[in-house]
């Protein structure tokens, strides 16, 4: 008997992570895994959803490490291609007084060579939610075209589109990013910007104004992620501020991706956006209690316990 298809499918670039976890030992790095949309589908899988991933990895040890990771985490890899001519991307995380800083070795990565012609359209059309991000679009022109083509294919098949703005100005100029992201908001069913992204995109610090701008761009549901302050959820007719949770925060890497995965997992479980955001808010808080993007991603029992504690 064949396995049921993934309910949630993400598309983007996986990156092997090297995280400097001890300031007193700056030459020592903990190896982990990252890449925003890969983190998202792993988070969704850990929280009980069937998820899958669309990307390309290099025919190298890092690519094989990712294939093993996704298999271990229960993420469907039938949409993962192997490119023997390009590497799997890498990034480094350091921690300072202003938070975590990222350094990337991703130029020409296998994932950046994804094209619309290489998309596993049956996988995307068979999902309930398709997730993509600004990073998925920023890594190359062909990857951006592939992201738009996948969004169109998803919509044509009645699949909901989830979009995280995930602005990285090291990857592209703000004007280019803004045009692409605004075009994506017009194609999504919900958007999940962080307040830092939105501040640059919309030149505003006001949460209400940011949410209104996302709605004006075409997003029916907006979930503004505000870090320790929680999130603001709006469906145009209703708006709710959800406060943050007090946890021992050691590393916020991947917390927003965890939020995205938890939100999607609860939507496919039947929650409305407000209930899904309350759950995702707790999941993202727990994701900050360990180092790395993947290792601290929580399980459902931990999220339920934090929600019960905060009730």
Can you characterise this structure?
This protein is of the alpha/beta class. It has one domain: Ribokinase (UDP-N-acetylmuramoyl-L-alanine:D-glutamate ligase, 3-Layer(aba) Sandwich). Helices cover 39% and strands 23% of the residues. It is built from 11 helices and 13 strands. The strands form 2 sheets. Strands 5-4-1-8-9-10-11-12-13 form a 9-stranded mixed β-sheet, sandwiched between helices. The chain has a 4-stranded mixed β-sheet with strand order 3-2-6-7. Strand 4, helix 2 (61-73) and strand 5 (75-83) form a beta-alpha-beta unit. Helix 9 (255-268) runs antiparallel to helix 10 (273-287) and helix 10 packs across helix 11. The longest helix is centred in the middle third of the chain and has 16 residues, at 141-156. It is globular. The model has no long low-confidence stretch (mean pLDDT 93).
Helices and strands in order, then pairings?
Elements (H helix, E strand, L loop, with lengths): L7 E4 L3 E5 L10 E5 L1 H11 L4 E8 L2 H13 L1 E9 L5 E8 L2 E7 L15 H5 L3 E5 H5 L2 H16 L3 E5 L9 H12 L4 E2 L3 H8 L4 H11 L3 E5 L5 E4 L4 E4 L12 H14 L4 H15 L12 H11 L1
Parallel strand pairs: 1-4, 1-8, 2-6, 4-5, 8-9, 9-10, 10-11
Antiparallel strand pairs: 2-3, 6-7, 11-12, 12-13
Helix pairs in contact: 1-9, 9-10, 10-11
